[in-house]
Write a structure and sequence with these properties.
Layout (H helix, E strand, L loop, with lengths): L32 E7 L2 E7 L4 H13 L5 E7 L3 E4 L22 E2 L13 E6 L10 E9 L6 H25 L2 H9 L3 H20 L8 H9 L12 E7 L1 H8 L14 E8 L2
Antiparallel strand pairs: 1-2, 1-9, 2-8, 3-4, 3-9, 4-7, 5-7, 6-7, 6-8
Helix pairs in contact: 2-4
């Protein structure tokens, strides 16, 4: 574990927190639910998973209510993802710098399913960071589509190790935050011995806490996908995936390639003109 040296620094909290288009040709199979995002750069059709019914039904509800109409793709990062769904972006001006905090007044419980992972083209729910959202509940409206990049098998193995170390470090920092008053007091008293002893104790507690939890290990299916089509494996198990692009991935790639400013907002607005539930 990469230790956080609490003697010299306090625990830091991180907050990760489209013209004329051809009619969709993807045909729904059985009871599949499709939503077409008609954007200023082209149409994107997504299939919603039945295995995540809360997110599926909510996305359909918002589409029918017009919540997504006129919203922007407000966050675009090449080789990673494109994000949209902030209601506040409907009226954003060229000088608006704070997008991404808008919501619809509620969150959704996480619906993690091990069969779904962050391969290129999946649809997932954005959310607040773990520090303020330990249950990893999803935003009621904001979503992203993964573009990602390709990895080698060696990189996947290295990522496994890094993610397991990060999980341990996250538990350590959560424990340390519970002892902040004690840490402040010892720092003020220059109690180096006490601080180091506390650090060793918290590390031991963190290791014990994650000991019985299965270590993260990518499946053969994940490795096959991430080494061929690509994706964002570091997000697996942390965000709810509830659908995938079935038509218009070329549009997603065009959006991904646009020039953005330092806040990752496209310099030229890319707007969802209308979200349409595709009926049979």
């Amino acid at each position: 574990m990469k230790k956080t040296f609490i003697l010299l620094t306090l625990m830091a909290c991180c907050f990760a927190c489209t013209g004329n288009q051809k009619k969709t040709t993807y045909m729904a199979k059985g009871n599949e639910k499709l939503v077409r995002l008609e954007t200023s750069m082209g149409n994107i059709t997504v299939k919603l998973y039945d295995e995540t019914p809360i997110h599926r039904d909510n996305f359909i509800k918002l589409a029918k209510e017009g919540t997504y109409d006129s919203t922007l793709f407000h966050r675009v990062i090449k080789n990673f993802m494109i994000q949209a769904g902030d209601p506040q972006s409907k009226t954003a001006t060229d000088t608006t710098t704070t997008l991404g905090s808008g919501d619809v007044g509620y969150t959704l419980p996480a619906e993690f399913n091990p069969k779904f992972f962050h391969k290129k083209g999946v649809l997932a729910a954005a959310r607040m960071g773990d520090e303020v959202n330990p249950k990893r509940e999803s935003s009621g409206c904001q979503f992203y589509i993964v573009t990602g990049r390709k990895f080698t098998e060696a990189q996947m193995i290295n990522m496994e190790n890094q993610m397991n170390e990060a999980r341990l470090d996250s538990v350590f920092q959560a424990l340390a935050r519970k002892h902040m008053k004690e840490i402040y007091k010892m720092r003020k008293a220059n109690d180096t011995e006490g601080l180091l002893a506390l650090q060793d104790s918290l590390e031991a507690q963190a290791r014990a806490q994650v000991k019985d939890e299965p270590a993260l290990k990518f499946t053969r299916e994940q490795i096959a996908a991430y080494t061929t089509v690509g994706g964002a494996p570091h997000l697996d198990g942390s965000y709810t995936i509830f659908g995938e692009v079935v038509e218009g991935m070329d549009v997603v790639e065009k959006i991904e390639a646009v020039k953005t400013n330092r806040t990752d907002r496209p310099e030229k607005d890319i707007r969802i003109l209308k979200a349409v539930v595709v009926e049979d």
